[in-house]
Amino acid sequence: MPGVTKEQIERAKEWDLLSYLQTYEPHEVKRCGGREYRTVTHDSLKISNGKWHWHSRGIGGRTALDYLIKVRGMGFVSAVELLCGERGAVSVEMARPKPKEKPRKPFSLPKGNRCGRAMVAYLQNRGIDADIISQCIGKGILYESRDYHNCVFVGRDPEGNARYAFQRGTYGQFRNDVEGSDKQYGFFLSAADKESPFLAVAESPIDALSIATLLKQQGEDWAKNHYLALGGTAPRALLQFLHDHPAVTYISLCLDNDRAGILGMEKIRAALQEEPALSGRIRMIVDNPPPAGSGKDYNELLQQKNAMRPVSRNREAGQHKGMEK
Predict the structure, then answer these.
(1) Which residues of the chain have pLDDT under 70?
(2) Checking DSSP bridges between strand 284-287 and strand 250-253, what pairing results, if any?
(3) What domains lie within the chain, and their CATH numbers?
């Protein structure tokens, strides 16, 4: 390749990321348990078993060369020269200072509306069971915002502190994460038994509640499962949830039946394999998107089933795969 030889490329690839950081940037690497490390600049970039993975961005690799190119944004030739010693690490860092990450704005929940009629009506119109909505309100993970009457789905940490919130408009198509949200803590509805081993994972809060509703309509024990919404397809919230809930050993991945959802389930499996403490604990993980022809996501499936029911939504609907047992 112009600029570097094959021998230089092979020498550069011999550097694993941990060795590189410990040699040139010891201030940038921090142990976070056992043989796992993380970087100071990016706390979700973990290094373990000779590989690294930046969980919040869904990228990873094995070598320091991969890291310099994918994370630092260096050109291939420059990265190879750095690792081969043709250009000193110190001089490169001085010539190319790291861009400073913008500080995260303080997280604050939107003010709540004393009456949640618009929120309840909207969710029931989407097919969500009234009792499940009531349970979410009672647990403090769902309410209606005062100013715009949005549905606000709240993600809390193990101490009960609100760390994340997703807003869905009751009119139109508005949806967004509240500014300052930490997507490491997704919206979740806990099982009746907090030590339940069963977890259903969806992309959005409405899909998570749709799964619970479908199971209830079938007459199944829907409250035996935890329900987690990732806020997308990235595995970050799931990894945090599993660290915080060590009793969970059975996972049903109920992401959307589209390209993003299928790829998301693949990324989740890969992320779990890179976390030996988690992958060794999980007894079963199944891909469980909505059946083909039943809609893209579980709320579409729920609405289809409700449209075919001649009577009250509180009676059982037809067959549904639900959680694998």
Answers:
(1) 1-3, 86-102, 104, 310-325
(2) parallel
(3) 6-95 (3.90.580.10), 117-308 (3.40.50)
